[in-house]
Amino acid sequence: MTYQDLLLQISKENDKLLVMTAENRAAIRGLPQEIGDKFVDVGIAEQTMIGAAAGLALRGRVPLVHALATFLTLRAFEFIRTDVGIANLPVKVIGGVPGFLSDGNGPTHQAIEDISLMRGIPNMKVFCPADEEELVQGMKLIIDDPAPWYVRYNAMKPCVEHKAPVELGKAEVLSEGYDVALLVYGFLLKEAQVAKELLEKEGLSVRLVNVRTLKPIDGEVILKAARETRLLVTVEDHFLTGGLFSILSELLVHEQTKVNVLPIALKEKWFKPALLPNVLQHEGFTGAQLATTIMNYVKDAQHSVL
Q1: What is the spatial distance between Cα 36 and Cα 268, in angstroms, rounded to a whole number?
Q2: Is 139 helix (H, G, I), strand (E, B) or coil?
């Protein structure tokens, strides 16, 4: 089932569902003729869309709002914070082409601080599916959840055989391992899987954790990995500040847990626009490059990982 198929199915079953967009129809192009007045396109007016969605939510509707992740989380930030977050309304904010998925676009269209912004809003939760299978599973739960959610839209085909269905607030452990734990979310799971296989050929035992929801974070799985492995590696197409590395750091400090941590993220710069494979290569995020970065860290005696 595709994301669009899911919304069509739910809209027939649930009169409260309302699909809204700020002229970003790529994922929902076939819905207007199917669901009629349950579909609203406000044009390029993200703030207006959020304000209208909040008003509709106050009247018992469940609005799913769509726009490019950059313009939703930056341009409409105050509206999301004030109209949706403070009121704790069940508006679902769907950000298109987040992170590296904005590949050919320049910094103005790159949402690589979106998780930091959204998770900072009280009541707002954050879901980052690895593929369309997880997206569809997660959206069924999110639509029924009374909280506001930010979703990093990703409809790529699955790159792994999932071991567990999506549960909000729960991570998926794809492999057990006791040397290195890779913590990853979104489409970069594919590259992390490649890195895992390469590291295992080098003799390392690797745990691969698909984090799925960054807020709430699955502290139990992450702290277990911290206790049972020698190195935690966070991999994310997001600024170093405010994303998974920051969430992990906050958790470890709160729990007074000490472990080696290697963050792999964007550090104080936007990425170079190109086709997605070239973006990954240029920024050092291919599976092979991730494996090399991790092996170099492990072999560095000052880190005392092994």
Answers
A1: 44
A2: helix
234 CB-side CA count, 13 A: 24
* pTM: predicted TM-score of the whole model, two decimal places: 0.96
Q: Which domains does the chain have, with CATH numbers?
A: 3-152 (3.40.50.970), 172-304 (3.40.50.920)
Q: Which two tokens stand for residue 14?
A: 């649930």
**Contact in structure between 159 and 193 (CB atoms under 8 Å):** yes
Other Cβ atoms within 10 Å of 129 Cβ, number? 27
CB–CB of 18/38 below 8 Å? yes
User: What one-character DSSP code corresponds to residue 75?
Assistant: I
Per-residue model confidence as pLDDT tens for the chain (306 residues): 999 999 999 999 999 999 999 988 989 999 999 999 999 999 999 999 999 999 999 999 999 999 999 999 999 999 999 999 999 999 999 999 999 999 999 999 999 999 999 999 999 999 999 999 999 999 999 999 999 999 999 999 999 999 999 999 999 999 999 999 999 999 999 999 999 999 999 999 999 999 999 999 999 999 999 999 999 999 999 999 999 999 999 999 999 999 999 999 999 999 999 999 999 999 999 999 999 999 999 998 666 666
Whole-Å CA distances, 225 to 160, 178, 298: 20, 8, 17
E strands, 128-245, in order: 149-152, 172-175, 180-184, 206-210, 213-215, 231-239
